[in-house]
Specification:
Layout: H1 14-21, H2 27-30, H3 35-50, H4 54-67, H5 72-84, H6 88-101, H7 106-118, H8 122-135, H9 142-160
Helix pairs in contact: 3-4, 4-5, 5-6, 5-7, 6-7, 7-8, 7-9, 8-9
Length: about 160
Amino acid sequence: MAKKVNPPEVRIPEELSTRLVNGEINLGQFLGLSRSAQYAIAQLADNLLASGQYQRSKQIFQGLVAADPFDSVFRCHLAATHQRLNEREEALAAYTEALKFNMVNVDALAGRGEVYLSLGKPAEAVRDLAQAVSLDPKGTKASTVRARAILLTLKSVAQRQ
């Protein structure tokens, strides 16, 4: 008969628990991951996304969102991963959540606009795409360059009809 093994006792400093409960630190920090470590992990996941390893990227971004549910960037990148996987409803929800935490996240606005367009919701798409372009009028981000191109294409199609 196997001997029963008791799990090790874990002692969590009260100050750390209090900081987590009060929202002073996120779960990732509570578990020992600094903000810079979390962003380094996000860069790894972003590299996976760029190389087409969508499922691996998605798993990492899901973990980062769990570690810091209030980070707009992590949610936006998770949304982009859903979008690449053609999980449009999940992408839409994640972009919307990203915008709740940073309503001027141009990547989230542009991405959500693209998803709205793919869902056949042109009015919502134009609203988000135009807002992304207005927030980055010089087109310093790839997402706003795409948003501007989509808006110009939509305008051209509308003029021909």
